[in-house]
Task: inverse folding
């Protein structure tokens, strides 16, 4: 196990903010993870697993051990009309999507270009363009941090919902995901449930054509973290009651809403945009001028710039629409995960 001390996390997360951590290891084997958790010198210090760092935001220097998931390996089996993929947790998700298409294994194309590791995909049940991880998941394997045994959950046991799963709830901080099982039907049908894909349905007759269009839409809307720091959608799309939605719709006929089991899912980007916040800036943190749901680091944003901007967005939307935005991005303080409200309230 190769331990590095006092490491700048800038290359290990996509926001591109300069933040040090006390210790960092890159785990190429499950045993590296076990050793980090069993290291007697580290018993009392916090530990954080990172994939590609594309859904995290560090609010302070991290006084603990960052363990970067580098577990590699892919296998593919055909059985009873399905492809079954077993993918190690550290595999790069966008590369996996391209690899599977190149094998003629189709069904991941709507999830193209989502940054991150395969092992992170179940955590917030990644989703885009009408497909979520739950739709293609067969199982998730994890290292249980009590017993240090590898265990398996079926897709159903993962309790997936919109940007949520058991890994953000009952199993948070208790497991490290080591591999995912994906199941794909051999007889491919395009999933064109997302509006802009539906509009092009005549042209979307092959998996590659869906893949290409999804990539094109994403590139036109979402900033590339290699060019400008960001963590994708900063806030989740809020789910509001039917009554609240009808009231909003009568005042703003152009509002978008999608029926869900729990109410109507609203576009947070629309709310932030209609508050006039596109391009709004605090220091070097900015509401992306093309996509209001994304906060970007225009240069040397400090953690405080991002926190202050996120709080300003949240308060502005709350006072104008009476809707409380929750952040999708996971916040980490010096020692633990935290929430925007708690951080702001504790600073006053
Ligand atoms: P990280 O950011 O490294 O980690 C995320 C969280 O999971 C952290 O709390 C971390 O501690 C924990 N974690 C990581 N790995 C493990 C593990 N093996 N075991 C246990 N816990 C672990 N998301 C979508 O759903 N849809 C999108 O369309 C989308 N688009 C995006 C576009 C951009 C430009 C960016 C920057 C992000 C986007 N995201 C999107 C968010 C992000 O891609 C996903 O959340 C992704 O799954 C994060 O993977 P990661 O490896 O970077 O996780
Ligand atoms: N909109 C605006 N102004 C904006 C941004 C969006 O009016 O500045 C409107 C759009 O016109 C559209 C609606 O909001 O009518 C929804 O926008 P879009 O289709 O771009 O999707 P989104 O709600 O902003 C969600 C996910 C993305 C995912 C896309 C595509 C969340 C929080 N975000 O974004 O996921 O890629 O749909 O499915 O659910 C992520 O989670 O990091 C992420 C990027």
Result:
């Amino acid at each position: 196990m190769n331990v590095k001390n006092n490491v700048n996390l800038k290359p290990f997360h996509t926001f591109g903010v300069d933040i040090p951590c006390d210790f960092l290891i890159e785990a190429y084997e499950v045993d590296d993870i076990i050793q980090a958790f069993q290291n007697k010198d580290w018993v009392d210090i916090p530990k954080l697993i990172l994939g590609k760092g594309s859904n995290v935001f560090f609010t302070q220097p991290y006084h603990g051990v960052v363990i970067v998931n580098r577990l590699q390996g892919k296998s593919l089996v055909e059985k009873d009309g399905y492809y079954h993929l077993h993918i190690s947790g550290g595999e790069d998700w966008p590369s996996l999507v391209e690899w599977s298409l190149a094998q003629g294994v189709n069904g991941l194309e709507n999830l193209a270009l989502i940054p991150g590791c395969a092992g992170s995909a179940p955590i917030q049940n990644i989703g885009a363009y009408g497909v979520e991880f739950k739709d293609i998941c067969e199982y998730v394997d994890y290292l249980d941090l009590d017993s240090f045994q590898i265990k398996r959950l079926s897709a159903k046991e993962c309790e997936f919902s919109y940007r949520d799963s058991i890994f953000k709830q009952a199993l948070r901080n208790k497991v490290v995901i080591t591999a995912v099982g994906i199941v794909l039907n051999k007889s491919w049908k395009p999933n064109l449930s997302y509006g802009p894909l539906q509009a092009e349905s005549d042209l979307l007759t092959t998996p590659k054509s869906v893949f290409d269009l999804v990539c094109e839409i994403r590139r036109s809307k979402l900033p590339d973290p290699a060019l400008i720091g960001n963590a994708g959608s900063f806030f989740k799309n809020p789910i509001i009651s039917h009554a609240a939605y009808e009231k909003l719709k009568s005042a703003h006929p152009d509002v978008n809403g999608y029926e869900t089991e729990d109410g109507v899912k609203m576009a947070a980007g629309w709310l932030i945009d209609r508050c006039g916040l596109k391009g709004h800036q605090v220091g070097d943190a900015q509401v992306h001028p093309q996509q209001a749901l994304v906060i970007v680091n225009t240069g040397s944003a400090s953690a405080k710039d991002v926190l202050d901007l996120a709080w300003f967005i949240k308060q502005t939307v709350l006072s104008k629409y009476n809707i409380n935005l929750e952040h999708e991005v996971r916040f980490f303080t010096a020692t633990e995960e935290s929430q925007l409200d708690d951080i702001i309230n504790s600073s006053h």
